[in-house]
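Let us work through a complete example step by step.
Step 1: write down the sequence.
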Amino acid sequence: MAESTTVSIPDIALFKAQSLAWANQFRVVCLLDSNNYPHKNSKSKEWVLAIDAMEEIVCNDNAFDALKEFQANSRTTIFGFLSYDLKNELENLESKNQDGLKFPELFFFKPRYVLEINEGKLTVNRNYPETFELIEAIRRQTIDDIQRQNAKTLKARTSKEIYLQNIEKIRAQIEAGDFYEMNYCNEFYTELAELNSVETFLKFNEKGKAPFSCFFKLDDKFLLCASPERFFKKEGTKLISQPIKGTLRKGNTEPENELLKTQLQNDLKERAENIMIVDLVRNDLARSSKAGSVNVEELCEVYEFNSVNQMISTVVSEVSINGIAAIKNAFPMGSMTGAPKIEVMKNIEQYEDFKRGLYSGSVGYITADGDFDFNVVIRSILYNSTEKYVSVRVGGAITYDSIAENEWNEILLKAESMMEVLGAEITFD
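Step 2: predict the structure and record it as tokens.
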């Protein structure tokens, strides 16, 4: 790869928007944006945009082995995603539900251009003079702000009545001892939408300012994501996982929000959900780590985001195997499955009416040295432009103490910001 060049950019916000609009001419784009979120633990890259695929890998079978080989041969940072349904490769599971989006199970690419912004400085992986020609092309880029969203309603894939009934069935299985906790999700969708994906993401990202936001384009398929959650990071020999379980609305004033944060911090049900997933994550990390190195650095801490408060724990360890093998051992993330993982994944397939695909999966990067950082694909708008299919998926952890009506209200709260960005409402007909 060519040596990088670093230059100062006077209007960072404008340049970021122009860069994404310029990049959208290519068939493959990955933007990772931390929105300068003041994370108390390990930070993400501030802003990085990977453009155009010089080499790529698309897999639906033997994906982790193929990824390991692709990463070893790339000799540079690669970007991509892991679909939730890679679970079928890891265990004796299947996915037969409806799929309107059609993302592959795994996709990674070696980018032609990489733009990275850190503390007001732009770094580009190209040599002079091409670097400055690229920057000037981006600065000339106009931003189309036409929303092109002609579908004003998204339909619930599972009706409220069935959703509430299913929660009671899940609670009965928990009482019977089949499992302890399940992440149960619903989909709100339309097949009549035409999105301006760049404009929609910029609006969504400005609204959410989430620490693990991303924009991913693969041909006619788009992910617009404002995720607050890290799945997995490797820094040298250190592994870091930060599961989220526990959500409460944000207050209208600072004093009100402090009271709500305290309420969430002390909520016994939410803490129990979080701790169950922390135990699962500890076990997942232990499979890839030196004996005795798994440690919970942070338990049930409340983080404040633009629209909600979330309960987050941080689990760390010292890795003892290949990094991609460690990802395989931890995938899919416990916060989006439940416990015990294999049993709940079998049941999720029976209760949900859609294939999760990239939702509940992960987007991120792997460096040439094998370090990586991956998010959890939640708080997302997914779009297949050929099919005109827009999907918003949301869910929550169901335990024996769950109250069905409260769980329904929680998924509506989580969907709220996406609906506002789309200018759409949910229909339950």
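Step 3: interpret the result. The two ends are 54 Å apart (CA to CA).
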